[in-house]
């Protein structure tokens, strides 16, 4: 279940085991707090905390589950695995533990975010079969205004969509800061509808961006957001070689799909031939329908020019050129690379 659904789940009762997967640390902390509070309210007064750091004795998990409580009939056992890798001994210990959950005991397991392969591990599957998997998923940009609205409502406040979008733009990629801004608004401004100007004066710009934010903004054709991401990454001192590699990788994939479409192939065949799979498929599919092969080739040539600037081979400001790449690619007319840049793309 999504961590945002946890309050409704806990209102119906408390299960024997919960595994909280922390893609978003703030939401994982909140989920853990909710589970502990619910357990206390139901009489689970004794708490045992195990942290599986390097060298951890996995026999302690079995011992905690088997030992009788000296002070309370109901117990809460928490197991934290900071790196999400229990090792062979740990995996076996977890699977055995799940096969014989102790009565009058609630177990809470904390894991970091797991990739697809890690989520298929037998010990993770054992945890999921024995209880409930709570996913503290990252709040994507499109859902951030809705998330902010829900958090404001908890404090008896609400705002117009434009105001929520303004806040979202200032805290994107930094959910802890978003939570702090919501708390600050509850202290500075009265309950009810928040005035837009009052919010603009109170909210700081604490947005943080990753490489994926840059490629997503470009593929979405969102010019304003693309420039904002570039400016944010420049201010953070992001590594340009990594940005260029990621950008060129997505541009190449989009170019292959766009070229296949131009040759008359269907979209499914074009995507398969270009080996475009997973979450990026939707972005590249829409971009390939919007851009021509000429446009994507021009963008690749421009990225090669930026790469030479970074390496000191040519002159220029790489961040300015990176902005221009996105602006040219999202312009209404096809982008053209300058003649001096007509070299092989990176």
Residue windows where pLDDT falls under 50 for at least 5 positions? 333-346
What is Rg?
25 Å
Question: Order of strands in the sheet with the most strands?
Answer: 2-3-4-1-5
Main β sheet profile: 5 strands, parallel
| CATH homologous superfamily designation of the largest domain | P-loop containing nucleotide triphosphate hydrolases
Helix/strand/pairing category:
alpha/beta
Describe this protein's structure.
By secondary structure, this protein is of the alpha/beta class. Helices cover 56% and strands 10% of the residues. The protein has three domains: 134 residues, Rossmann fold, CATH 3.40.50; 62 residues, Helicase, Ruva Protein, domain 3; 121 residues, Zinc Finger, Delta Prime, domain 3, CATH 1.20.272. The strands form two sheets. It has a five-stranded parallel beta sheet, with helices on both faces. Helix 8 crosses helix 9. The relative contact order is 0.08.
Structure described in brief:
The protein has 346 residues and is an alpha/beta fold. Helices cover 56% and strands 10% of the residues. The relative contact order is 0.08.
How is the secondary structure organized here?
Layout: H1 6-11, E1 17-22, H2 25-41, E2 46-51, H3 59-66, E3 75-80, H4 87-99, E4 105-112, H5 116-119, H6 122-130, E5 132-136, H7 144-154, E6 157-158, H8 161-171, H9 175-188, E7 192-193, H10 196-202, H11 211-220, H12 223-236, H13 240-262, H14 267-273, H15 280-290, H16 293-310, H17 318-329
Parallel strand pairs: 1-4, 1-5, 2-3, 3-4, 6-7
Helix pairs in contact: 3-4, 4-6, 7-8, 8-9, 11-12, 11-13, 12-17, 13-14, 13-15, 13-16, 16-17
């Amino acid at each position: 279940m999504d961590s945002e659904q946890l309050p409704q789940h806990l209102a119906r009762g408390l299960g024997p085991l919960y595994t909280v997967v922390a893609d978003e640390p703030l939401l994982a902390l909140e989920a853990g707090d909710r589970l502990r509070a619910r357990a206390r309210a139901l009489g689970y007064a004794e708490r045992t905390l195990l942290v599986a750091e390097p060298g951890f004795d996995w026999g302690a998990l079995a011992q905690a589950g088997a030992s009788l409580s000296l002070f309370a009939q109901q117990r809460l056992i928490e197991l934290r695995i900071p790196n999400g890798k229990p090792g062979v001994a740990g995996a076996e210990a977890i699977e055995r533990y799940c096969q014989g959950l102790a009565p009058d005991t609630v177990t809470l397991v904390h894991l970091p975010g797991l990739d697809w392969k890690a989520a298929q591990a037998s010990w993770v599957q054992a945890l999921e079969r024995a209880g409930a998997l709570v996913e503290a998923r990252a709040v994507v940009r499109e859902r951030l205004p809705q998330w902010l609205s829900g958090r404001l409502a908890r404090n008896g406040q609400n705002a117009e969509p434009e105001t929520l979008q303004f806040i979202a733009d200032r805290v994107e990629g930094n959910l802890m800061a978003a939570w702090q801004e919501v708390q600050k608004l509850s202290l500075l401004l009265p309950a009810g509808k928040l005035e837009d100007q009052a919010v603009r004066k109170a909210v700081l710009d604490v947005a943080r961006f990753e490489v994926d934010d840059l490629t997503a903004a470009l593929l979405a054709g969102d010019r304003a957001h693309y420039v904002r991401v570039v400016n944010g990454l420049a201010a953070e001192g992001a590594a340009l070689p990594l940005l260029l590699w990621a950008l060129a990788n997505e541009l190449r994939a989009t170019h292959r799909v766009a070229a296949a479409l131009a040759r008359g192939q269907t979209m499914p065949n074009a995507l398969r031939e270009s080996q475009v799979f997973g979450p990026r498929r939707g972005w590249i599919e829409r971009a390939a329908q919007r851009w021509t092969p000429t446009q994507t080739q021009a963008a690749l040539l421009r990225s090669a020019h930026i790469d030479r600037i970074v390496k000191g081979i040519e002159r220029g400001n790489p961040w300015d050129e990176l902005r221009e790449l996105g602006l040219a690619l999202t312009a209404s007319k096809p982008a053209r690379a300058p003649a001096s840049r007509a070299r092989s793309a990176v």
